[in-house]
Amino acid sequence: MQNFGTETILFVDDDENILILVRLQLERFGYTVVTCSSGLEALELFKLNPEKFDLMISDMGMPGMDGYRLIHEIRKIRSSIPILFCSGSDEGIMGNDIENKVADGFLSKPFTMHEISWAIRSLLDNLHS
């Protein structure tokens, strides 16, 4: 399998099956993937070493701290980190939130491995160009 990248991704979703499947697949593409099953867990991990992560992918609908709050808190720490939204509902998210730079991209669930790997690579490549 061809490597697409060597970057480190923080992937946040409250569905354990999604965390496992996405992590395994992205690791096959060459990425290092750190997974968290809650927004609070992800925020605490991010605070420990904000420069460790090249990109964050977060589900929107999570108990406790939802994706919006997580992204808001992450941006306070490191405003330049590229962030992808994931949600089973794209109602109102894609246009408003991308335009307002809440996030840099949106993935509608369910997404394919091709879609997520393309979105990741596009965001990371745009940073370096």
3D architecture notes:
- It is a single chain.
- This protein has about 130 residues and is an alpha/beta fold.
- The chain contains five helices and five strands.
- Strands 2-1-3-4-5 form a five-stranded parallel beta sheet, with helices on both faces.
- Strand 3, helix 3 and strand 4 form a beta-alpha-beta unit.
- The radius of gyration is 13 Å and the shape is globular.
How does the SSE layout of this entry go?
Elements: E1 8-12, H1 16-28, E2 32-36, H2 39-48, E3 55-59, H3 67-77, E4 83-87, H4 93-99, E5 105-108, H5 113-127
If strands are numbered along the chain, what order do they take across the biggest sheet? Answer: 2-1-3-4-5
Q: Between the first and last Cα atoms, what is the distance in angstroms?
A: 25 Å
Tell me the overall shape. Answer: globular
Q: What is the ordering of alpha helices and beta strands?
A: EHEHEHEHEH
Strand content: 15-25%
The helix count comes to 5
User: Main sheet, how many strands, which sense, barrel?
Assistant: 5 strands, parallel
Assembly annotation? single chain
The residue fraction in helices comes out at 40-55%
Q: Which structural class matches the secondary elements?
A: alpha/beta
How many beta-strand runs? 5
Average of per-residue pLDDT values: 87
> Measured on Cα atoms, how large is the radius of gyration?
13 Å
Low confidence ranges: 91-99
